[in-house]
């Protein structure tokens, strides 16, 4: 009877340990998978947008398109590059979702997709709020603790 009780206790402890290991804790990656998946999906869009905006020529095109739709020829006029290079840059902007193009007859018209810039803007706003909050906390800390010694000149 005693041996059987020991076995059942061991079995119960083993079961509890397995359950404890399988339950997501605060540092368990499985608890954060939905958030991570959302960030990864979102980061792909952001990566393409920031990669497209990394080039000065593409930024110039986007700035021109911010004033309104324009043909490829209008976009190419101020740029010192071939039409093939302009088209390649437009393909990158189009693949990122920042610019849309439509062809009417022989003219390809480009326009900014405002919704695509919304994702970039919301990401930037979130970073801004985060840093403003951190700086506000630092300011409050410095005001609440004025007795902290200042750094001395290392001379």
Short description:
The protein is mostly helical and 155 residues long. It contains six helices and three strands. The chain has a domain at 38-142: Orthogonal Bundle (Arc Repressor Mutant, subunit A), CATH 1.10.10.10.
Report on the structure:
The protein is mainly α and 155 residues long. It has a domain at 38-142: Arc Repressor Mutant, subunit A. The protein has helices at 2-22, 33-53, 56-66, 72-76, 83-96, 114-144, and strands spanning 70-71, 99-104, 107-112. The protein has a 3-stranded antiparallel sheet. A hairpin with a 2-residue loop joins strand 2 and strand 3 (107-112). Helix 2 (33-53) runs antiparallel to helix 5 (83-96) and helix 2 packs across helix 6 (114-144). It is flat. The N and C termini lie far apart (80 Å). The mean pLDDT is 81.
Produce the secondary structure layout.
Layout: H1 2-22, H2 33-53, H3 56-66, E1 70-71, H4 72-76, H5 83-96, E2 99-104, E3 107-112, H6 114-144
Antiparallel strand pairs: 1-3, 2-3
Helix pairs in contact: 2-5, 2-6
In whole angstroms, the N-to-C terminal distance is 80 Å
Parts with pLDDT < 50 across at least 5 consecutive residues: none
Largest sheet: 3 strands, antiparallel
Strand fraction equals 5-15%
* CATH architecture verdict of the domain at 38-142: Orthogonal Bundle
Overall mean pLDDT stands at 81
Query: What's the CATH topology label of the domain at 38-142?
Result: Arc Repressor Mutant, subunit A
Question: What is the CATH top level name of the domain at 38-142?
Answer: Mainly Alpha
**SSE string, helix = H, strand = E?**
HHHEHHEEH
Number of strands: 3
Specify the number of helices. Answer: 6
CATH superfamily of the domain at 38-142: Winged helix-like DNA-binding domain superfamily/Winged helix DNA-binding domain
């Amino acid at each position: 009877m005693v041996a059987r009780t020991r076995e059942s206790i061991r079995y119960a402890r083993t079961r509890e340990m397995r359950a404890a290991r399988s339950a997501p804790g605060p540092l368990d990656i499985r608890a954060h998978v939905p958030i991570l998946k959302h960030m990864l999906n979102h980061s792909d869009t952001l990566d393409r947008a920031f990669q497209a905006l990394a080039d000065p020529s593409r930024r110039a095109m986007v700035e021109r398109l911010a004033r309104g739709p324009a043909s490829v020829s209008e976009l190419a006029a101020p740029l010192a590059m071939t039409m093939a290079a302009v088209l390649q840059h437009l393909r990158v902007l189009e693949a990122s979702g920042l610019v849309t193009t439509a062809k009417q007859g022989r003219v390809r018209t480009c326009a900014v997709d405002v919704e695509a810039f919304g994702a970039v803007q919301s990401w930037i706003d979130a970073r801004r709020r985060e840093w403003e909050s951190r700086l506000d906390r630092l300011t409050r800390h410095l005001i609440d603790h004025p007795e902290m010694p200042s750094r001395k000149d290392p001379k």
